[in-house]
Design brief:
Number of helices: 9
Distance between the termini: 55 Å
CATH class of the largest domain: Alpha Beta
Order of helices and strands: EHEEHEEHEEHEHEEEHEEHEEHEHE
CATH architecture of the largest domain: Alpha-Beta Complex
Number of strands: 17
Largest sheet: 12 strands, mixed
Length: 349
């Protein structure tokens, strides 16, 4: 399959009538899949009403079919067609954070969406992305768009069109290049079907922001207990992993350096994932800084690009620093823990 690339300037006055947007929207109407930018990461979109289109998403990603997809909309009028019994809490969250990096799990109206898109569940995960290109594409298609991240399943999520092209060229109909994304980590997923909202996946909207808006927020036990099965789309399997094994270290830079020295003495090529503040401290074969520790938003923004950068090296092992689990740091550590797949090393000197 030939993958078409469309470059779109997000500052165009009327993106809905932009020729590239119209052409990409026609692909979606024809039940093809198209990658597009959101404010979090690039999504891989298809007609959420059509089984065939949704099957193409799973096939392109190599994603297990029991993993539900997030449905993307461009206006609230679309929501009433496939969601019911929307709570007052959910409505407040929509008014406060949409368009933006927040996904809400709601009760599903039966018989509208592809059962493949919702993995046969009685609920549906929905968000309205805060990116002008995404909103224009969805609006031009006239469809609810099912869209996970536009990468091969298990790899770091894409924050540029080049990342998407690297993973999915020849496997999808097209890629809309709207420039690099901003937030860098996926949307926060909140279940609004119970007595009070529950965070199923930390992301671009922080726990603190949610609690300021609606009060008490619960948490999916799977976020802290690996024996539990996560309920959120995109959290059921290992994700975000670089090619080389990644070990997170809860300890000082000196403690991490000791681990580096031990592995290098054993003949291994060792990489360190650090921050701008600490990168001058380490002596390793590869050192890559991932934003600034003093501003964790920069770490989130560059996280996936950093993880992909290690794939361009021949490192045998990667040691990574850990971050405070507060604000967007909660989402950063959630993704790093998934990327590692190994127990965090606690090491003090």
């Amino acid at each position: 399959m030939e993958t078409t690339m469309w470059t779109v300037d997000k500052d165009v006055d009327n993106l809905v009538t932009y020729p590239q947007i119209i052409e990409a929207a026609e692909k979606l109407k024809g039940n093809e899949v198209v990658a597009f930018p959101t404010e979090t990461v690039y999504g891989l979109g298809g007609n959420a009403k059509d089984d065939g289109a949704v099957a193409k998403i799973f096939a392109a990603k190599g994603r297990p079919g029991d993993n539900p997809l997030i449905i993307h909309i461009s206006n609230l009028g679309q929501l009433e067609h496939f969601a019911v019994n929307i709570s007052e809490t959910a409505q407040i969250l929509m008014e406060t954070f949409w368009p933006g990096p927040l996904t809400l799990v709601l009760e599903k109206r039966e018989g509208v969406l592809s059962e493949k898109a919702t993995a046969g569940l009685s609920t549906v995960a929905v968000r309205m992305p805060g990116h002008p290109v995404a909103l224009a594409l969805i609006e031009a298609s006239g469809l609810p768009i099912a869209a996970p991240s536009a990468n091969v399943s298990g790899k770091p999520s894409p924050t540029t069109a080049a990342h998407v092209h690297e993973d999915l060229d020849g496997r999808i109909a097209g890629i809309v290049d709207g420039g690099p994304t901003g937030v860098g980590v996926e949307s926060t997923v909140v279940d609004c079907t119970g007595k009070y909202p529950v965070i199923l996946r930390p992301g671009g909207i922080t726990r603190e922001q949610l609690e300021e808006t609606v009060g008490k927020i619960g948490e999916d036990p799977a976020l802290t207990d690996s024996s539990q099965v996560p309920k959120s789309p995109g959290m059921k399997y290992r994700h975000y992993a670089p090619d080389s094994p990644l070990y997170l270290v809860d300890g000082s830079a000196a403690a991490i350096q000791q681990l580096v020295d031990e592995k290098r003495a054993a003949g291994m090529k060792v990489a360190v994932m650090t921050t701008e503040e600490n990168k001058g401290f380490y002596r390793a074969d590869i050192i890559i800084a991932c934003g600034r520790r003093s501003k964790l938003e920069t770490v989130a923004e560059s996280l996936y690009d950093t993880l992909r950068s290690f794939n361009e090296t021949d490192a045998d092992i990667i040691f990574g620093e850990v971050f405070p689990v507060a604000g967007v740091g909660e989402a950063v550590m959630n993704r790093l823990t998934k990327a590692s797949g190994n127990p965090i090393i606690t090491k003090n000197l």
